[in-house]
Amino acid sequence: MTIRVCLLLVAAMLVFAAASIALSGAPVENKGAAEIKLPGGTRGPVPFPHHQHQNQLVDCKICHSLYPQKPGIIAELKAAGTLKKKQVMNKQCTQCHKQKKKEGLKAGPTTCAKCHIKEKK
Ligand code: HEC
Ligand code: HEC
Ligand code: HEC
Known about the structure:
Elements: H1 2-25, E1 35-38, E2 46-49, H2 50-57, H3 61-64, H4 73-80, H5 87-102, H6 112-115
């Protein structure tokens, strides 16, 4: 009886180990947070649906050629002077949304208050 239980336990552990090796063997891309709140200066923060954009645009480089895949990097690079203030906003966010709109495709917001939200106190 106890031997049978032991054998079952060992078998279960082997299955678990095999499964974890199979899982860790596959390269898993870090897609980052699904939702990111970007600092928007005096205008207020900008909620950014990150995964929705990944699904829509597929190519990470569309955005991450300008800044690496790291939390808070836009603010960091702006503070360092590597990125200009509003550079991401104007050259990525707004520019793409306007372009898509012009082409009659699904697009994101193009007006200040649709992107920048007022923080609730
Ligand atoms: C439409 C633009 C855009 C696209 C496309 C995009 N990202 Fe991002 N990503 C961002 C922004 C903006 C941030 C936040 C940077 C910051 O916090 O300053 C970010 C941050 C990240 C981070 C760090 C934040 C975290 O939660 O860990 C990772 C990792 C990341 N992206 C991975 C990816 C991958 C992988 C892809 C492609 C499958 C991708 N991104 C596509 C805009 C984009
Ligand atoms: C599509 C979304 C979007 C729209 C539309 C938008 N913004 Fe932004 N804004 C951002 C993002 C993202 C940032 C942070 C990244 C950057 O500075 O490029 C930002 C940053 C800012 C900053 C802070 C810059 C700094 O670092 O001091 C100000 C001020 C600002 N926006 C004003 C405006 C005004 C005014 C409008 C309307 C004319 C506007 N934004 C429209 C997304 C948007
Ligand atoms: C290369 C094109 C592209 C770039 C760059 C881009 N977007 Fe978008 N965005 C889109 C498209 C396309 C949609 C519409 C997605 C949909 O309706 O499924 C969208 C939708 C959105 C929405 C609305 C989401 C909703 O569910 O209503 C927000 C908010 C948004 N974008 C913010 C941003 C911000 C902030 C940035 C810059 C950090 C940015 N986008 C950069 C293409 C882009």
